[in-house]
Structure formats: C-alpha cells, structure tokens
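COMPLEX REQUEST
Ligand: guanosine-5',3'-tetraphosphate
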Amino acid sequence: MSFDKEYKRRRTFAIIAHPDAGKTTLTEKLLLFGGAIQTAGAVKSNKIKKSTTSDFMEIEKQRGISVATSVMTFEYKNLKINILDTPGHKDFAEDTYRTLTAVDSVILVIDCVKGVEEQTEKLMEVCRMRDTPVIIFVNKMDREGKGPFDLLDELEQKLNIKTRPITWPVNGGRDFKGVYHLLEKKMNFFAINKQKVEEDIFEFGIDSPILEEKIGTKDAAQLREDVELIEGVYEEFNKEAYLKGELAPVFFGSAVSNFGVMELLNTFCQVSPLPISRKTDKREVQPTEKNFSGFVFKIHANIDPRHRDRIAFLRICSGTFNRGEFYSHIRSGKKMRFSNPYMFMADSKNVVDDAYPGDVIGLYDTGNFKIGDTLSEGEQFQFIGIPSFSPELFREVINTNPLKTKQLEKGVQQLSEEGVAQLFTMQPGNRKIIGTVGELQFEVIQHRLLNEYGASCSFESKPYSKACWLTADDPEKLGEFIRLKSNFIAYDKDNRPVFLAETDWILRMNKENNPDIEFHTTSEF
Ligand code: G4P
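STATUS: Structure written out below.
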C-alpha cells in the first residue's frame, strides 16, 4: 500500500474517563467490533483497585498489564485504529497527560449517574490546551442517572465545550428503551450485548406510528418532544467545529451491554482526524513529509529487575519508520538503529518492518531516552508540546543507606526520566525533591529503588503545593528574585528555575509583587 493510503488509514486516539466510568469496558467493546479480540474479558483492567495500600504485587502486575495494553490496534472499515491506553489510577494522571500529547483525538466517557467528575475536568483541561477533538460517550444508561438535558448542560459548563447530541436516549435505568440516531433518524432498541445494530433497528420518520407500537404512547410522545427541542436548540452537527476542539458530539449508551457503542464507533470513523501536524522548536512538521520523525512520550522499565532495559514508546509524526535503519537522536546527537521495534495488537506484540504517521512503536532502550526526545532522519528539531505539569505533592528524598548513595542518585535520576515522578534539586546541598500527583507514586519509587537499584530511602514531606517555572525578560531581575526567594527555588531536570509555592495565596502574592517575573504552570511556555 502506498504511503499516502497508509497514513490516511490511521486514527490514533485515547479513551479518557474518571476511574470507574467504564473506560476499560468501552475499550474492550471497541476491540470486539474490530475483531482484535474474540471474547469479553480479554482486556485487563489497567487499574490499581486498592488505592494506597502497599500491595506491590498488584502494582507490579499492573505494570506488566500496562505494557501489554499501552497501545491497542485494530482494523475496522479499512481503518487502522490505535487506542492509546491511559492509567486508570488518578495518582498516575501525569502519565495520562503525556499520552494525550501523542493522540489526535479523544473519546471521553462519562458515567450518567455521576456526571462530570474531578478527574474528567482535569483531563479535559489538558485536551483543551491543545484543542484536541473530543467525542463524548455517556455511559451506564441502564442505570438510573441524571436527565440527558441536565447532563449536556453540565458537560458544557464544567468542560467549557459546546456539545451536540448525535444519539438520544429513551429513558434511562430499568426503563431504558434505546437510542434514537438524530442524524440518521434510526431507532436502536435496547438489548443486552448487541453485536449488530441492524438486528433490531428501525428507520422511520419520527412521526411514524411504529414508534408507539415499539415503545408505547408516552415514551413516543416524549421522544418527539425531545427531538423537536434538540433540533430547535442545537445547530447542525459541524465537523469543522469538532476538529477544532470547539464542539463535542455526544452519544448515549451502555458499554457493558455493548449498546450504543457501534453508533459511536461509526461516527468516530467518519469524523475523527487523520494524523495531524506537530510543532517543533523550529517549524511545524506535516505527517505527509517524506522524512521520518517522531517523539518519545512514555518509557516503561522492565519489570524484571535483572534486566535494566526499558521500552520507549515512540509516536510517529512524519514519513516512514523502517526497521534497522539509522536515525538521529537529536538531544544526544547519536545515531541509533532499532532491530526489533514492535507494534501491539490487543494482547500480543509483533516486530514490525515499517510504521507510519499515527502509529506508536515500542523501542528497546538501554537508558538513552528521556520523555520528549525526538528521533529524525537528521534534521535538527525537537518536538514541543510534551510539557510537565505542576505536581501536587512534594517530598525530599532522604538517603537511609549511605553505602548506596550512588545507586540512589542513579535510581532517582532514571525513574524521573521514565516519568514516574518529577525531580527537582534544591540548594544548598543538592537536595532532591520529588514531586508527584499522588501518594501511590512515592510508594512505587521507594519500592523500585530498593528492588531495582538496591537503594533505600525515606521521604520528608515538604509544605509546597504548586511548582511554577520562572522566566523574565530581564535576566538580572530573575536572578534577583531567585536570590531573594532561595528557600523556595528549585531546579527541574533541565536545570530551569522553579518557584515552589506553599499555597495559592502565596503564589498570587508573589505574582503581584513581582510583575517582571513570569510564573508558568507547565514546563513549556
Ligand atoms: P474504568 O476502566 O473507567 O475504571 O471502568 P471499568 O470499565 O472498569 O468499569 C467500571 C465498572 O462499571 C465495572 O464494574 C463495569 O462492569 C461497570 N460498567 C461499565 N459499563 C457499564 C454500563 O454500561 N452499565 C453498568 N451498569 N455498569 C457498567 P465493576 O463491578 O467495578 O467491575 P466488574 O467486576 O463488573 O468488571
């Protein structure tokens, strides 16, 4: 197949959701449609059920699963669809944010009982920063939930995006009767585990008496009224607005019953974006360019501590990647070749000879890669748009075995390069401060330092709650601020100054009192 055909077939997206909304279930149903898996239950839930207990077997198991499910590829309607998995646990949200830099669109799953939850808002903020196109799936319609109009209002208000329903539910909970496709004007009647929508589907004008026959007078009247209202209030579905990230089409269904999922998938196939162009520090790179380029958005350490090798996940941005060819690792200037790059199919992985824009490949790494690294055919540019976000918890690493100081330093460095947590250095004394978004990350670090590096440490809490990267037009002013506030200044992995604020109020005061200094909440500005 020609390059053009290959690249136009790619659709790369992530499913995002607050834990328990149904992300794993929906992923599985999509894979079933694509024939990538045969049975339900084949996709392991990538989540750590117990929140902060030291259940390390569980964590290790999850790390194993999350390698296997990092990317899931399936074919559907002649498209090659790549689903990038995101961790289910909120303590690993930073990993999710980074994965979102490697996709072209997202499907957001909402639980109709709970509506927009905390994690949904945070994830959507990251999508909005990049204007990522979003499709919304309102899940668990078989449960008694909020009304669909209320849900749409809530989505618009809390997520700061316009919505446009594409399917519409007839009731919810025990009385759920199905969904009406507002564009195709077809009614899909609810049944558990439908494999084909066509099995029981009616195409008719909304005024047809068949509707009464099928769902009763009261529900038919209600549906007609709802549809009239929707058509009066909402504009026609506008694909351009969706592609710009301004408008989210909304679907209703029940993932566990495999209901309403096919409507979602069909629309996804029709409207979701092809691999998009990506910004670098020099210029924008188009996917259609002949020369290969890509960036690393995730690094996974081997779970077997005897093998220190890692897998770097590379998103291909332009050209064709060929196995065994030499490519430039821009940060180090080294030439690298990969004899066993692999791609993932649901529950297996295969060595690939070539890969195209939109694809994600796994590369064996012996410690050369950092998150955000660029590979190219030689052109000197770095992909941008893979920022670090401010952590929420900060702790100082205390070495509890002085004989293993070197191992500790190396371990902390490598784990932060892998993206397990962020590392900041404070003076005097080169103190190491680790920043995370959740408690569990500290446990993982402590456990892995001991198991993989033989180093032991404890953590001392720091009172900070936010990190802001600092810049100023006048370097002297920045230098002065750093001197004055030295107790609150740390340096990130690239040795850039960061202000550690204890409270939002302190941060605000510092901003007000220092108008020449810019405070950035992400590492890219
Ligand atoms: P997550 O990945 O977003 O965290 O959610 P996951 O798919 O694991 O789903 C969370 C729970 O919600 C699961 O139940 C799942 O079966 C249930 N669920 C998913 N979709 C629907 C739906 O459409 N309707 C209803 N009623 N439930 C749904 P669980 O009890 O936590 O796990 P399990 O033992 O059933 O697998």
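REMARKS: The chain has three domains: 3-271, 278-376, 393-520. The first strand starts at residue 10 and ends at 17.
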